[in-house]
Design brief:
There is one protein chain. The protein is an alpha/beta fold. The chain contains seven helices and ten strands. The longest helix has 14 residues.
């Protein structure tokens, strides 16, 4: 059974999927981490592969930019393909002093300025959280690898070019970094009783106005990938 966005058949995708916004980063993970990867999707160039990691089946796939996009792909993976856990690896802009390009952020929770969560018609404000088992495992692996990391809240924003610098208000509440997908992923996982985690690499500092190159964004941030694959 395929979907309008995924040409895979049920059984082609592993129970664990490591996702990235950039489909070329998914291709990079397939080529550098998986044994015998086989492509299961190329619809809209949203590349997906399944292979073995230390003998265990794992899939990697792109999810595009923004909550509507990751919302579609993660919903289909959970509901159509029986995926049990999704681990997102991506980049973020840090909004706290002392954080540096290349630092890892393990997203314990995800604030948002999006309307995505309104679909659940909850009588209040929902706080999307990561799966604790995955979170704890990621933190332990960061320590083992000696990777400088932070654990806490991120902001999943619909706005990339923030001319009003609203990120400063989130920073005042202790939010670590800004990205564009985690709240939707965490909400989808919660709604169907599955697991999710986001592991981010700081690619930009909004505080110090620094940024990584496009090549580094696409290929160089391997520490978060090593942490993600350790959770399989």
């Amino acid at each position: 059974m395929s979907t309008p966005h995924n040409s895979a058949n049920v059984g082609d995708i592993a129970a664990t999927v490591i996702m990235s916004g950039d489909p070329l980063r998914a291709k990079f993970m397939a080529e550098h981490f998986l044994e015998n990867p086989k492509q299961f999707n190329g619809v809209r160039n949203m590349l997906g592969y399944t292979g073995l990691y230390h003998g265990k089946p794992v899939s990697v796939m792109g999810h595009g930019m923004g909550m509507p996009s990751v919302g579609i792909y993660s919903y289909e993976l959970y509901h159509v393909y029986g995926v049990q856990q999704i681990i997102r690896v991506g980049t973020a802009g840090c909004i706290q002093k002392g954080m540096e390009i290349g630092d890892v952020v393990v997203a314990q929770g995800s604030c948002t300025d999006s309307n995505y969560l309104h679909q659940y018609h909850l009588p209040g404000t929902y706080a999307p959280l990561a799966d604790y088992e995955l979170l704890s495992g990621a933190v332990d692996m960061c320590k083992q690898l000696g990777v400088k990391h932070y654990v806490g809240n991120v902001l999943s924003s619909d706005i990339f070019y923030d001319d009003n610098q609203e990120w400063r208000q989130w920073a005042a509440m202790g939010v670590l970094a800004v990205e564009m997908e985690s709240a939707a992923l965490y909400a989808n996982a919660a709604a169907c009783g599955r697991k999710a985690l986001t592991i981010l690499t700081v690619s930009d500092s909004l505080v110090e106005k620094k940024s990584a190159s496009a090549e580094e964004r696409q290929l160089a941030f391997t520490n978060m990938m090593r942490v993600a694959f350790s959770l399989v």
